[in-house]
Amino acid sequence: MILSAAGAALVLDDSGPGLPRVRHFGAGLGPVAGPGLLPALASPAPPLLPAQGDSWYGRPGLSGVRDGEQWPVRWTLERCDVAAEPGSGGTVTVTASDARAGLELVSELVMDGGGLVRMRHQVRNAAASPYRVEGLVCALPVPARAGELLDFTGRWALEKVPQRRAFGHGVWSRENRRGRTGHDGTGLLVAGTEGFGFRTGEVWAVHAGWSGGHVHYAERIAEGVSLLAAGELLEPGEVVLGEGESYRTPWVYFTWSGGGLDDASARLHGHLRARSLPVRPVTLNNWEATYFDHGLDRLLELADKAAAAGIERFVLDDGWFRHRRHDRAGLGDWYVDEGVWPDGLHPLADRVRKLGMQFGLWFEPEMVNPDSDLAREHPDWILGRAERMPPPQRHQQVLDLARPEAYAYLLERLDTLVGEYALDYIKWDHNRDIAEPVHGGVPGVHAQTVAVYRLLDELRRRHPALEIESCSSGGARIDYGILARTDRVWTSDSNDALDRQAIQRWTGLLVPPERLGSHVGAPRDHVTGRSLPLAFRAATALFGHMGVEWDLTSAGQEELEELGTWIALHKRLRPVLHAGRVVRADHPDPSASLHGVVLPERAVYAFAQLTSRVDIAPAPLRLPGLDPAALYEVRVAGPAPERSGMPEWAAAPVRLPGSVLGELGLPAPVLRPATALLIEVERV
Hints:
The protein has 13 helices and 37 strands. It is an alpha+beta fold. Strand 10 (about 150-155) and strand 11 form a beta hairpin.
């Protein structure tokens, strides 16, 4: 069985007695027949769900314990249904069982038209005694030439920090027990040929589309098999199946590229872009402008300044609901604070809409302050054991959304507020890790995550036009499980443009620009304390879902005019930025970066000088992703940096073939640190 699309192929061999074995995942193999491939693919290959009965002595694909007599699992293949069109991908559904072990299995593999593979397993308990699922992962093999691993770590306000290592024998495992995806969650685990980059090398990557506990791992065993695997990380006793009950993994995504990380990333972006989005409005979020100060006059002035600068959406952040004058009280009391807003939010919402902007509102539905009416009235709704509450974080506890009463309360409150204020947008926050989660006497993260998904799905069903942002103290909940239900993510709580250059570059491997919240912060960043010029802050924010997180009432007229110029530029370039293929140059100078977004007819690039150069002359700018046979006009886009070291081509448009722009490149400008030059390219 062969699934193939966009130069990628997945080959399954169902000639054996057990589950199909994965003979190949990687480059396309051309017009070949399945049986004719087998002699060439005779090297060891793992089955879809590796187990010791298949001579696999690494981590098992399924681990579990039955109350009563224990039988190792040895699957018997019942059927294998294939719906595939050569070159267009397809679907394979595998059904198997083990009567002795009392288990049934359904495995699904889908390759989309872009060559991205997603997989999930469902195991069903067919016996009378309970079966405790301890782990169920999806895995695909990678070849021996994949000798290097890349994954990501991080912290609050500095997410997606890359780290590399050799891919040796044994297991490299990234496990997350935070109850949410986590600032240090890897997002992607990548295996590749030695020295792979954005544009070079062969790479394979895996991503678990799940917002609770999760695991990603790479394993190489002495029998000559290597694989990448991912799935939900279950705690002991979290999933116990009674007779006839099933557990299904989240979707796990696998991508391959023969041309570096960019191609692998494009396949992932294609999956998210299959669900189209409306034009992404430039957004102002008031948090860093006013914090908990919700004086109406100040907010109205801020709205006026925002509209004058060309902003298209105004979002009222934390502080609008009862008792919320600081972060120690009020969470859970989702009623407009009558003392601060005697006429409700209508005066602000009406002004915002008269100014031509959309109106959005901040919530943190999954959390509760102990100092709140909700917690005092319903302490049993807190996720944990009543006899000993979990340790607080940020003066918060977690609401047990798997409890029907808590779920119903939140749905009613959200539904009512979205309806009353005709909200266009919700910023949905999640500001703490989940510690010691107990629901019904067992670990509760799985049930909590399922309930959150159900709540989001129901709210979207009732309000189909509503847009939702996933924010989790910055980038702590960015995964394909949450992105199936939301329209963008908040990339980081740091708006420091220097840090954001790296955070957005690496988060952007998984998420396309139009879904990455990227805001122009204040002149002095409130996280790092670093002061950066407006041009650099705006050039950084432009390559995402652009917004503003700045008290514009404190800005001077020249600053407001300059901001308006950058917002107008973003709107002009938005059709390219939010639809094109993201490219990142393997620029030889670590003090600078070069990246862009490319459509067949147009492209936009940014050359950013991050720190001071070592070399006197900067390296040429080799523009990736262009058609070598096409002729392009090249010009500076937007305000040019004020610096004497600008090359001649920056003074007036020039015309060059794509082969020259990609191989020889353009002479680079001599820029100060924290400076960026935007380049616009158009086919002629």
